[in-house]
Amino acid sequence: AGIEYTRPATAPLRAVATLTQPGHAVRAALAADGRVSFDADVVITDARERDVARFRATWLVKHQRAGATGR
Question: What is the pTM of this model?
């Protein structure tokens, strides 16, 4: 795991994440269990639309309980 830097970047930067599994499967797991963990491949591009970095992120998402403030 880690970030693979492929070239120096020129601002502005843009990051695009792509799920490694179908979105409907992630949503179904969240609906069934109230939480889900999934991976997303992230590519960062620079102002000239060249890839400057890439990495895989693992996300954990869970439903917020009613009345919870998110703190």
Answer: 0.77
